[in-house]
Amino acid sequence: MLNFDFCSPTYFAFGKDTEERTGELVKRFGGSKVLIHYGEGSVERSGLLNRVKKSLQESEIEFVELGGVQPNPRASLVYEGIELCREEQVDFILGVGGGSAVDSAKAIAVGVPYDGDFWDLYEQRPEIEEVIPVGTIITLAATGSEGSNSSVITQEKGWKKYGFRSELIRPVFSIMNPELTYTLPPYQTACGIVDMLSHILERYFSNTKEVDLTDRMSEAVMKSIIDNAFIVMNDPENYGARANLMWAGNIAHNDTLGVGREQDWSSHQIEHELSALYDVAHGAGLAVVLPAFMKFTMPKHVMRYAQLANRVWNMDINFEDPKQTASKGIAAFEMFFKMIGMPTTFEELGAKEEDIPQLTSKVRIKGDGEILGFFEPLTRDDIRSIYQLCVG
Amino acid sequence: MLNFDFCSPTYFAFGKDTEERTGELVKRFGGSKVLIHYGEGSVERSGLLNRVKKSLQESEIEFVELGGVQPNPRASLVYEGIELCREEQVDFILGVGGGSAVDSAKAIAVGVPYDGDFWDLYEQRPEIEEVIPVGTIITLAATGSEGSNSSVITQEKGWKKYGFRSELIRPVFSIMNPELTYTLPPYQTACGIVDMLSHILERYFSNTKEVDLTDRMSEAVMKSIIDNAFIVMNDPENYGARANLMWAGNIAHNDTLGVGREQDWSSHQIEHELSALYDVAHGAGLAVVLPAFMKFTMPKHVMRYAQLANRVWNMDINFEDPKQTASKGIAAFEMFFKMIGMPTTFEELGAKEEDIPQLTSKVRIKGDGEILGFFEPLTRDDIRSIYQLCVG
Question: Is 0.90 topped by the overall pTM?
Fold first, then answer.
């Protein structure tokens, strides 16, 4: 096990009707003028926005609004939000919606006090010292952005999709009402499920030894996500299943399941280029990339994948040939993605084989730009092979 | 699943040599004059105390010391600590040692700004508004006190052992170096293992439905504790096993494994009277009480115990008679406690059958004082029966 620091200070209010506590929580965390930042209408149609405003009014908290966050949230709206917050002297950002609204809210929160172009922060990732506090009300179980220290924004100029991390952008509170996810279309529900599984898998793709506890907890959460996924796909208003999935989405990404291990995140980098180029949902892109990544890396990590197959999919180990078990576990993930309606090939995703050279060259690699990831260090050639495996 | 609020804001610095970061962390959390509060000598003998002082000195932080915390920490030392902190204008309490040192540190932290006898707080459990911040350096994987909102103190007058809870007494940071547990005697290691298992079981003894995620994570952590327990009992200086156990002790009690469920805690109340009367280690008392509690409650909760047997002990379910499976799971816990050197009967613990009426009448029951717990509401007669089952 590696040394680690862990701190997940977000205050979570979880359960039915918790959005009625918005005003109380903004007040508790020092907000007096709020930017309510949200997406494209469903938050309005469902009546959620009105309930949130009512709660703020009851606590005598002022607010301004900025809607229009798109999936793969855009830099242009972030610029608009920063300007609005400065004009209106906003001191608290409330992201209402899915991970996109929250990520966009976080970007505004770092941008307002930053003397320069916020995109520099996403490009250069310096340490920052000041943000406006962010709270969230999430309507989607997926990104874990409600408890995470990260934000991913797409810059329209050049269609770059970059992430930024800082302990300062962890939401101070997050309101999580599973009922708000009842009306999600099945496709978006499934995208969320893949996204949260990927957050666990990226931490599980690790060569660090003696992390039994983190491993077992990771496997437990994956099992629970898979079990509950089958329930909600058939019964979208099943409170228990929606609740388990919503909390799992948070646990999957607040690093409870990552501590003490070297983590990978190559699949995320490889997927980011797909959603940037084709504007597909992150979860859908991951459903295509993850099986390809697993197939490519399996031969050198047979026992790791055999453990995954055994513990998550209850598959007996083939002790004569554990590679068989490892392969079956990967096939199970792929089949699961198909069963919940996700694409698993380039064609199903709407991606094109001829774009592979372009995708490959754009994948962002830190450091010297040559090798991606830790679990299985990937060259650009390896990345190309993984995209090729996505073609099916 | 029930609505819940969850917040575990403690900053954890985990791993080798992390005690060298004491000064840095005290400073980060605003301390300028520290009370170092510890137990009975092992902290001095091991050199830990000197390393901590050196780290504080390097950060130019003043300190005073108060040693002498005993297992089942006493009110008398808390009074002494409160007085010392007031005299010396201490603004940060650092508990160094096991759960006892930390619990005693927390009691001092609430007592210093409280205008009255701190024991009133433990007797009456009011909301408090002010404490001195607490940090910890733990040398024992057990109580989870390093991340918890609770403290248990024994009042020598009348030998009462009461707990107090407040979000304000959660440590602001905890330093966790698994190497500091290498020299623990096997008995204390085993007591810690039982204690952390009990913190999970008390949350698992629940009738709340649709908490699959919390269940599975609980089962995963119990499995990991049991696996790693066998390793450390044979190889006390196995870093990985010590590390997994130490982190498990925290996860077991920061409520990650309790959210969304009605919890029980009857076994803890029943045990508290044993450690108060006989001054035995809490973990040893729990090793006696837990199997008795499980046997007593099993007939009405067959499927819950069958799940425990199946998922924690990998026992196949007997679908014709799940009670058999349930019983085997309980027997497995009892056998496990014996295997790691714990007592499982009154006699082995040094408790006396003739004290059962006294023990029974002293068990503290909230509310009307008639019914203990939620999982299986216990009358005083039931509590007597559970003590009787402890006789063996």
Answer: yes
